[in-house]
Amino acid sequence: MRIVPEISGMQIVLLGQFNPAIFTPAWFTHNGLLRDGLEESAQVQVIHPQIADFTADWLHLQVTNQQFVAETQQAPYARLCELVVRTFSKCVHHTPLTAFGINRNVHFLVSDPEARNRLEKTLVPPEPWSAFREGLGLDSGHGGMSTVQVSHRRPEGRREGGQISVTVQPSALVGEGRTGVFVGVNDHFLADPPEGSARQLMSVLGAEFGPSRKRSDEFIDHVMSLTESEG
Amino acid sequence: MAFRLESTAGAPNGPGTSAGSIVRENPGELIHKEGLRAMWASPGDPSPTADTSSLGYHELQRSTWMGSQGRDVPQECLVDILPPSVPQVPTPTLHPLQEWEGCVTEIRSDEFVADLLDLTAGDAVEAEEAVISKDELSPEDQARLAIGSFFWWVVGYEASLGSARKHVSLIVFPDLPPMTQADLDRGRDWADWLYKRWGLE
Questions:
Q1: Which residue among B69, B92, B175 places its CB closest to the CB of A34?
Q2: Alpha-carbon span A189 to A136, nearest angstrom
Q3: Contact residues, chain B, for A84 at CB < 8 Å
Q4: Which residues of B touch A13 (CB under 8 A)?
Q5: For residue B152, which residues of chain A lie inside 8 Å, CB to CB?
Q6: Per the CB < 8 Å rule, is B152 touching A67?
Q7: pLDDT tens-digit map of B89-101
Q8: Closest residue of B to A99, CA-based?
């Protein structure tokens, strides 16, 4: 990436049917999925039959009855994949899974507000909105791009419903509303057959994680390039 | 069980980004309207199977996209676990400039040798070798050092919001459970399968 992000992370999201109450820090350490002792320093938000939510060192985990989300902002990202794959191919491999997503999110700063304006005008040219310039505040600086999402709805080699989506927004976390950009990539895979074995889906996740991450970084770098002036 | 709907659509940075707009009830109580099913679903984002080529989504299906920046909370099903989850930036970011996967091939008194697979370049085979000082490892990881063990090596920038960026090098050995008989059996089956497939019988 040509700009080092201020915030950078990855998520793996699984859809299926889960029992959140089992996903405690102690369960992960007991099964050798997280390092011994982490359960003592983990920040547990809630462990409940309908939701589990905790942070342990590099990992933030949130599980509901339908969704399992593991995320980190600390490389190496491969350990996130390793954790999820081992959890669902070794420990709870009977879990019915229907889909997974590999999400890459970054917030980065550009040099000045003009650079972000350049990006916004490239992605959302103001001309088609010229009749509404005043109504949308495009001239006053109070209006402009909020979200741009571009999706590939039929990625090759993926079951129908698989999707790659890139989302660009002004960052809510960095740049004080003027110089920050958020880019998120969602790489979505469906189980084939639906509700197939967790092991099978995890083997796909293991194989796809690296290429997905590389592809996402290329998308993000491209968005970064759009903030550069031609001169 | 009480609940109160409070729109986050007008939040400065979009739906769900304002922690202050989250509904709270008695500490620890689950506030529940439609059930947790739609808890993190983001109705504003296209569903993966939605037919957006037509004029609407004819088949809604849950997405693995977690919303934009922070968790988007659906307005029609505002459910919260109290207090609001972890901070939006819970840990420092370690952004990798270069990542390798390494396999230990030799251990010396103060250093070890490893074959490296360049993950950043997307290499498929180990093409580099490195000699690494044991001082790079945490005491815990020094105990894990063994011929054949693998690790990840990251060189990158560590940053927290509002603080200086640090250039760091980090070696991490994965948290692997002990090998079981089932693991060994699976490995043996796989080797047998390869042996037959290559016609080596």
A1: B175
A2: 37
A3: none
A4: 64-66
A5: 76, 78-79
A6: no
A7: 457 889 999 999 9
A8: B64
Q: CA-CA distance, A69 to A11, in Å (whole number)?
A: 7
Average pLDDT over residues B170-180: 78
| Chain B contact set for A186 (CB, 8 A) | 63-66
| B5 — pLDDT class (breaks 50, 70, 90) | very low
Least confident of A110-119, A167-176, A196-205, B36-45: B36-45
| ipTM value for the complex | 0.81
Does the beta-carbon distance from B12 to A177 stay under 8 Å?
yes
Dist. CA B116–CA B175, nearest whole Å: 19
Selection from A88, A84, A47 nearest residue A69 by Cα = A84
* Tokens found for residue B111: 């250093």
Q: Which residues contact B24 (CB under 8 A, 6 or more apart)?
A: B31, B80, B82, B83
Residue with tokens 């979009």: B14
Q: Give me the percent of chain A exceeding a pLDDT of 70.
A: 98
Q: Is B169 exposed, middle or buried (0-12, 13-18, 19+ CB in 10 A)?
A: exposed
Q: What's residue B76's pLDDT?
A: 37
